[in-house]
Amino acid sequence: MKIAAFYENIYDGAQAMGRSMEETLGSLRAEGMEGLYISMDSWKRDGHELQGILSRQGVALEGMHCFCDFPGQPDSDAYREMIDTAADIGARHLLFVPGMLHTGNTPRDLQRMIDGMRRAVEYGQYRGLPILMEDFDGLLAPYNCMAGLQYFMEQVEGLECAFDTGNFIIFHEDELAAFDLFAPRIRTLHLKDRCATPRHAGDTPLRCADGSMAYCCAVGSGDIRMAQILERLKAMGYPGNVIAELYCVDPREVLGDLAQSIRWLRGQGLGQ
After folding, report:
1. Backbone angles phi, psi at 63, to 5 degrees
2. Rounded to whole angstroms, how far apart are CA atoms 62 and 49?
């Protein structure tokens, strides 16, 4: 398993520390990062410059993620352009966040998400690109828990899972039970660790459904049973890679936490 990281985390850290992207990616590559995971919006903004940097630093494009408002724009075919972009630049997979529920229209919104994801998966299959969904940590997302994500997996044939280790905390669900549930559909993993108190002054909390707060921290340093999840991955012969995720960590500290995460993962036998 190779180690990748979210471009948006790297970008925020580089901006906060006044570093160039070339320097920052080179430093993380030296730590053992081999792949980059990027949003569609970031690629549209920075992709032209990034292509050369990735080539020079020996960093591959692991995959892409994007937001698509299927409830608000049910007739839009914007998802096709997103899939075409990801397929054309060689992304291994594309994660869709298919919109949020709007007050008063829950059944309609949910059905529009399902219908939109069916179209996306069908077109992704035509382009040879796996289409994924994750357990999104937002209270207006009907796929923010085990039952919600499972419903989408059951309704949308061919849909695969981007398993986020830290997002089931929004309802304090057991991440190992969730892993076992979705294991047959997992295409990639977002390794997000959580803790109950902030590690840095500028960390931003996630408010859970019960009002409690959860913070993101360096992979392997928090409360998520990360080592056990990795053991399960190895035991099942998982053929994919892993992506360290550090959204909402203090931008001045995120690069250090990302380097720490990569070192921890390499200590678990991942990467180079």
Report:
1. -175, 180
2. 17
Mean pLDDT score, 162-190: 97
Q: What is the pLDDT of residues 151-165, one digit of tens each?
A: 999 999 999 999 999
Contacts 24+ apart (CB under 8 A), 40-44: 40/64, 40/65, 40/66, 40/82, 40/85, 40/86, 41/66, 42/7, 42/8, 42/11, 43/85, 43/89, 44/85
CA separation, residue 136 to residues 100, 133, 191 (Å): 10, 8, 13
Do 124 and 64 meet the contact criterion of CB atoms below 8 Å apart? no
Is-above-0.90 flag for pTM? yes
What number of helices (H) and strands (E) belong to the chain? 9, 11
Confidence of residue 53 (pLDDT cuts 50, 70, 90): very high
More confident residue, 75 or 148: 148
